[in-house]
From TrEMBL, chains A, B:
Residues 48-99 form the Cupin type-2 domain. SUPFAM superfamilies: RmlC-like cupins. Gene3D superfamilies: Jelly Rolls. Coiled coil: none annotated. Transmembrane segments: none annotated. This is Cupin type-2 domain-containing protein.
Length: 115, 115
């Protein structure tokens, strides 16, 4: 039986965001993401092929979307980001670390989607 | 864009566990579960057709498994429960309420499974 705790194993210092896959099955990937102040590099956007449900578990964060909207997130806040909705991480707290849970729902039939 | 917070909208009193579907897609269902002291009725077991990844976000809880093992859970603790692994909820805290996130991964090809 696999088990763990999402608030343990958080390094005191780390240079880049840490992505850890918690489970992966066809069409589904669950990951923990750790940030200590890291943000998406200037001018870059996430543009994902699958939908993502993302939850902030600890810390504070702010997302920005290509349509100009922003979303400030506190613990317990979740947002469903449709595929190809361009977004960036504008802010994450360093202390405490931002702890995210990301559920990626991938396209079941890639052949049906354009490039 | 759908969004919400998992720590809000928790009634002060409720007679039975509250199950709320956060998202549902083929093969995947994500739900928030709220408990205030409720447990699985004596002699009953959960025996699920699909695997479940379950996370305790707030409160305390204890699971029991049909093999005799028990698992005490604190916030951030998660466990992956394989399908047909019989389990029960033996304890949940009333204050604060136990807040769970359950990710149900259903069988993709039900025709291939008995009964």
């Amino acid at each position: 039986m696999q088990q763990g705790n999402l608030f343990t194993g958080i390094p005191a210092v780390f240079p880049q965001e840490i992505f850890e896959t918690l489970l992966e099955q066809p069409g589904v990937r669950l990951e923990r993401i750790l940030s200590r102040g890291q943000v998406t590099p200037p001018g870059q956007w996430y543009d994902q092929d699958g939908d993502e449900w993302v939850l902030l578990l600890q810390g504070q964060a702010r997302l920005a979307f290509a349509d100009g909207s922003q979303l400030t997130m506190e613990p317990g806040d979740w947002v469903y980001i449709e595929r190809h909705r361009r977004h960036r991480v504008e802010y994450t707290s360093a202390e405490p670390a931002a702890v995210w849970l990301g559920l990626h729902l991938r396209i079941r039939n890639p052949a049906a989607t354009p490039g």
